[in-house]
Amino acid sequence: MTAYIDPMEMDFEDCYPVLAAMRRSHPFKVRAWEDAQQRFRSFSDRFIRPIALEVDRKSREDHDYLSWDFCRRAAEERLFSVMIPPMFGGQGSDLFVLALMFEEMCAACTGLGNVVGAHYLGYSGLAAGMNLDLLGRISEDIVAGEKRGEPIIMSAAHTEPSAGSDVEDEEMMPKARVVTSAVRKNGGWVLNGQKVFISDGHFATWHMVSAYRDKKDPLQSGLGVIVKTGQPGFSMVKHELKMGQRACPASTLVFEDCYVPDNMVISEIPEFFERILFVLGASRVGVAAIGTGCARGAFEHALKLAHTARYQGRFLIDEQWVQQILADMLANVMIGRALYISAGLCGAQNGMMGIMTNPALTLLQKLIPDVLLLSPLYQKVLRSSVMSKIMNRAVSRIGLKNRQRDQAHSSAAKCVATDLAMRNANLALEIAGAAGLEHAAGVEKIFRDAKLLQIYEGTNQMNRKHLFDSIIARKTTM
Amino acid sequence: MLRHDDETIKAILDTAERFADRELKDGVFERDSYPYHAFAAETFKRAGEAGILFLTAPEDLGGVALPPEVWALVIEKLASAEAGFAASLLTHALAAEALLRLGNDGLKAEWIGADPPRLLAYPLYLDPSDPQGLPSAEKRGDGYILTGTARLVANAPVADAAVIAADMDGGAGVFLVPLSEETRPAPAEMLGLRPCPVGHLDLVDRELPAGHLLATGLDALAALHELFYPAVTAILIATHKASLDYALEYGMERYQGGRMIQEHSQLRAMYGLMAVENIALREAWLRGLSENGTDPDARLAVKIMAAELAIRGTMDGVQLLGGYGYTMEYPQEHRMRDARQAAEIMGSPMRQKLALMDKLLGGGKGRA
User: Fold this and answer.
1) CA distance B180 to B159
2) Closest to A112 (Cα-Cα) out of A293, A296, A336
3) pTM for this one?
4) CA–CA distance, A16 with A330 (Å, rounded to integer)
5) E strand or H helix at A192, and its extent?
6) What is the ipTM of this complex?
7) Domain residue ranges in chain B
8) Is B305 helix (H, G, I), strand (E, B) or coil?
9) Considering the domain B7-119 in this protein, what is its CATH number?
10) Do A451 and B318 make contact, defined as CB atoms within 8 angstroms?
């Protein structure tokens, strides 16, 4: 008699042997990651798995339905301040805590997981500008919202109607057909244009928006600003009818003479696009974790079905061909994890995450009591233009080779993990057979959800191009 | 076995093409919204008026007396415009064929020759080599009592009668179950082919006269499926082709990095793969319909291959449109769902591979 394991019994050591191997050298970090896995697994069990199918169904029945209840619950559980530094009242967790959160949540529902994931894309875009005053103000608003149980969510508005992958690739960027312009006026900027497929658009209070001072030269004229929902000249006209990930709205944002004062500008440096690439270097690690979670969700569904469904009278789990597929699916999850962990480590070494999670800074924040960290004097120094300049200089010093390394590994992790998510979703349907086609079984939803992972954050074709350009070709110019 | 130069067949195919163009090109989104949008009953009515509901029935029952393989050609024409409606018509055709081959004259007259035509349901996803989730049937007096649930019966939420399989003492049986407003099941929400409604038919001590037992054992349904594998393949090939055509059209209108999408060689390679696979599949499919290609195992093999290639190809069809491919405003996403759903018709590809090997090796012994 064989006792098959429940996937939920797979603990930290089973799932992340590479991270667990760091226990001796980094005991506190590993403990934090273990705690994170338990915390987010528990959250997903209590608040995602029970509602995932119903949220998906409701949003098909009524396109205007948005899962605000979930957002409020996530705020109550402080899921929107995980990455916010303690000096701004957040939890100051590292990229791996975030990645573990994405994997756990997306194993339960990729759409709901992405509601939280997309928030951090917006937050990363804001952080990339190193405008510590603005970062502090928005961070505080998010943290204060969580204390009230109110979700204050961010979105990243970068994609345009005729420029999707173009605006994520430095070679294509000069020819991208961008439409969102920024014109200098009265101590600020006036925005006109449109953004599409903006994840969390309808949920977000704050939007990280990229605009262009010269639409004919988008590479050198980028500008990052923060726009608030409800401000004059800014509207959301619709959110897309999507095949899957329906819990996370993909919105169209419209700017009509939308005035943005200077104190809401993230960055006006000519090399702003380079910062976007850094953001993508980090966020693609997150998408790889999301893909791994999705692949795991497919595996868990398939394993469960294999215990109850039969082929020629025998339980599927006792069939060798099913065991092979299940082993293949778990191996795919392992590959996804190995890649996002590897890319995360690479990012910490070579990318912007290395500066944001600088060990000295982190230690300093841990040693200084919260009372001091949040004291007016410390905050004044922290948010001064001098500090922003220091941080900006640190980012500027990251060499091209480091950035390419960061980009190559994150792109590889993203496209492989999301391709494997799609593969696992299809394999889960193969095991389930026709019964898996029904919404109530939960498998077909994963199949629909997985496809988007191969498209957003740069199509997987575009990510392969990045990988080639960054490592194989070692292109040396922007 | 078909003669492609047959004038009647040519006329039927012209009719099917015109019907697809007139009735199926518009309203795809609405029909795909079922069950949150009404079933396309009117479209079926017009299919009846066009004379494409009972192609194999004898003329005295209002049919055209064509060989069942003609369904594959008609279904291909319809599926090029909308796979969901094509699947619904295929369901009806399977049930009608079961009645024509297995039913008594009374049943044929009542359900095939009726005016206005009656819509029929069938367990489209049933694999006779591994039947799952059947209700039970018990002989009582002159008739039968059926109890339990017939799962995944296509067209059942909207049909007038359903052909279903049930477990009986010493094997299984095939029955015709009349349906009414009260006994039709609620529609289940499915991945794809949504214009072809699917429901779980609950039977509570349902009495049926003896004549409603169409066959004992499922061999008759297995034989029926062998005839209709090319029609399933037609849905897969047509969906794959429609996905390729649309992606090409899009690729010639949209630009990326200053160049038309279809000019990027990495994307051309994706188009090329889809085109090669579709051409090769179509050749194999047509051979299965020709005088020299009636081997049922080969037809099943082509269906399995078509399923696997259509699943992958329609995913690429979405990918080639990027974010737009994923939205329901463009037709690519439903093609991806439709292909995945169609792959499971009459059995899932993996299980069908195993069944085929069992057959070729002379039984399932020795399976681990």
Assistant:
1) 8
2) A293
3) 0.95
4) 13
5) strand A188-199
6) 0.96
7) 7-119, 121-217, 220-360
8) helix
9) 1.10.540.10
10) yes
